[in-house]
Amino acid sequence: MRGVDNTAIGSASLGTGMFEFGVMSTTPKEYTVSIELDGYIFENIKVMLGRATEEPQTVNRRVLLRKVAIGEISALRHVFFDFGKATLQEASFEELNMMVTMMKQNQTMQVEIGGHTDDVGSDTFNKKLSQQRADAVRAYLTNNGISGRRIKSVGYGEERPIVSNDDESGGREINRRVEFKVIAK
Question: What is the pLDDT at residue 1?
Answer without folding.
Answer: 53
